[in-house]
Amino acid sequence: MQPRVEPLPPAERTGFAAKNPLNVFTTLARHPKLFEAWLGFGGALLYGTLPARDRELAILRTARNRDCAYEWAHHVRLAREAGLSEEEISSVRHDGAGLTPGDLLILRAADELHADGDLTDETWSELCERYDETGRIELVMLVAHYDMLSRVLTTFRVQLE
Rounded CA gap, 127 and 95, in Å? Predict the structure, then answer.
């Protein structure tokens, strides 16, 4: 499938997109003002306060829920760096078998946000036991952000490198 929005050619890349020539960056850099704002927001979520393992579980589950191969492929590497095993990564894609109750809570939160745009009171209560207020805000915004990004990547037909 051809991209609907072509990545910038190498000669036109500047700044972050020149240093990090992944298709997600070189495509979104076609709108410089939005790209710069998005980098700041996305970076704040990617390197926020959540443990890396929790962050990657949430992102992978969101990529799976949106069937976004680009997001999945890039975050599998980050999930490995965060300490997830191949079995755990595969489990995120499927039924969650073998994951801890805390891991399953993150998957459930991502699933509920995907399906309903909201969390049940039970899930919220469990998140309150696991995270402080900052962590809860960040988790919900992380899932919402990667849901949005997966829609953008899919709509623009961004190709995997």
Answer: 20
Rounded to 5 degrees, what angle do the CA atoms 101, 87, 142 make? Answer: 55
Residue type, 50: L
Q: What would the two tokens of residue 154 be?
A: 């899919």
3-state secondary structure of 143: helix
Query: Which residue reads 């952000």 in tokens?
Result: 145
Q: Give the tens place of pLDDT for each residue, 107-142.
A: 999 999 999 999 999 999 999 999 999 999 999 999
Contact assessment for residue 108 and residue 138, using Cβ atoms and an 8 Å cutoff: no
3-state secondary structure of 84: coil
Does the pTM exceed 0.85?
Answer: yes
Helices (H) and strands (E) in the chain, counts: 9, 0
Q: Are 112 and 120 in contact (CB under 8 A)?
A: yes
* Domains (range + CATH), the chain: 10-46 (no CATH), 52-156 (1.20.1290.10)
The three-class DSSP label of residue 8 is: coil
Dist CA 154 CA 78 (whole Å): 20
Sequence letter at residue 142? L
**How many whole angstroms separate alpha carbon 129 and alpha carbon 1?**
45
Phi, psi of 44 (to 5 degrees): -65, -35
Residues whose CB is less than 8 angstroms from the CB of residue 111 and which lie 6 or more positions away in sequence, other chains included: 61, 65
